[in-house]
């Protein structure tokens, strides 16, 4: 039909404010809350747990997510990998009795059932008001006056920046030898597999791999394995000792540290090697007897 425009008026619904009870009822009717489908295992997400069964017994982990039928995904700390466990195989890490979490889940469902407590129990509590402190802001550990103590370079503003390319390697002091510069020393990667409360390095994927030491960067050793170069913590690097005659070696310890030579013969009884130096500056002797564990094989 056709009507004059002045005869048409648009409908505007009234604005009605709902009470707190009506808000709770509307919140409970939304699709986000279904009291029959509440996952009882969700209360354990983020909990630090101890594995009480399986081959990783006594390992520590963190529950990351839940699955059906009481199973959860746990990030095992020594390996940093997520594994699937049932709640009956886990206990609270701080529980001295190591009670399985499946029993704690049943107790909590009986003490606090969302279907009985109503939707108001699922609503988040109001955020508390935190009053500002009236005390002045003071450092918890103030530094002493500069005239009373000598600051280390890390705290002294006038000092230069610390050297990131440190040559101090307590576990492998031979990495600082000038005689190894430019030489491809043979090494093997050891003790990288994760053990209890020790994640190891790279999950132990490079355990037993042989490579070439080509230098240091920061606090790590640069190791070439195949076509890739890795930065490996020095405590996992082991030198390859000579095993046959004719190998090129470098002395790692003693007064001859840094000297390069060739293995003439191996003395099994004394666990030493007869080394012929390649530089005439070392003396007129034909060979030096040096312990095997004071040598490292270098690539030709």
Q: What is the subunit organization of this protein?
A: single chain
For the sheet with most strands, the description reads: 5 strands, antiparallel
What is the distance, rounded to the nearest whole angstrom, between the alpha carbons of the first and last residues? 100 Å
Output mean pLDDT: 75
Number of strands: 15
Strand order of the largest sheet: 4-3-2-1-5
- Which word captures the global form? elongated
What's the SSE pattern?
HEEEEEHHEEEEEEEEEE
**Unreliable stretches:** 107-125, 157-167
Kindly provide the radius of gyration, computed on alpha-carbon positions and rounded to a whole number of angstroms: 34 Å
Structural class: mainly beta
Instruction: Give the amount of beta strand, in percent.
Output: 25-35%
Number of helices: 3
The helix fraction, in percent, is under 10%
Can you offer a commentary on this structure?
By secondary structure, the chain is mostly beta strands. 8% of the residues lie in helices and 26% in strands. It contains three helices and 15 strands. The strands form three sheets. A five-stranded antiparallel beta sheet has the order 4-3-2-1-5, with no helix packed on it. The radius of gyration is 34 Å and the shape is elongated.
Task: Please describe the topology of this protein.
Layout: H1 20-29, E1 48-51, E2 60-66, E3 71-76, E4 81-86, E5 90-92, H2 101-111, H3 114-117, E6 185-189, E7 210-217, E8 220-225, E9 228-232, E10 237-239, E11 248-251, E12 260-267, E13 272-277, E14 288-291, E15 295-297
Antiparallel strand pairs: 1-2, 1-5, 2-3, 3-4, 6-7, 6-10, 7-8, 8-9, 11-12, 11-15, 12-13, 13-14
């Amino acid at each position: 039909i056709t009507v004059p425009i002045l005869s048409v008026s648009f409908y505007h619904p009234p604005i009605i404010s709902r009470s707190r009870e009506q808000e709770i009822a509307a919140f409970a009717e939304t699709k986000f809350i279904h009291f029959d489908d509440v996952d009882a295992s969700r209360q354990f997400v983020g909990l630090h747990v101890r594995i009480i069964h399986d081959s990783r017994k006594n390992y520590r982990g963190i529950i990351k997510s839940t699955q059906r039928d009481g199973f959860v995904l746990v990030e095992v700390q020594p390996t940093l990998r997520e594994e699937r466990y049932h709640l009956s195989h886990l206990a609270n890490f701080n529980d001295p009795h190591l009670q399985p979490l499946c029993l704690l889940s049943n107790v909590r469902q009986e003490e606090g059932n969302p279907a009985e407590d109503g939707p108001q129990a699922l609503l988040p509590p109001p955020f508390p008001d935190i009053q500002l402190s009236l005390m002045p802001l003071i450092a918890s550990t103030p530094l002493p006056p500069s005239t009373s103590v000598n600051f280390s370079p890390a705290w002294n503003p006038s000092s230069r920046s610390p050297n990131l390319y440190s040559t101090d390697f307590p576990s492998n002091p031979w990495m600082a030898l000038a005689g190894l510069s430019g030489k491809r020393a043979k090494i093997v990667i050891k003790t990288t597999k994760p053990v209890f409360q020790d994640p190891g390095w790279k999950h132990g994927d490079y355990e037993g791999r042989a490579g070439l030491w080509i230098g240091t960067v920061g606090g790590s050793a640069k190791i070439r394995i195949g076509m890739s170069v890795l930065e490996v913590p020095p405590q996992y690097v082991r030198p390859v000792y000579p095993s046959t005659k004719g190998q090129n070696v470098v002395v790692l310890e003693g007064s001859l540290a840094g000297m390069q030579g060739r293995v003439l013969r191996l003395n099994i009884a004394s666990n030493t090697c007869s080394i012929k130096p390649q530089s005439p500056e070392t003396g007129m002797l034909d060979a030096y007897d040096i312990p095997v564990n004071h040598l490292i094989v270098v690539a030709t």
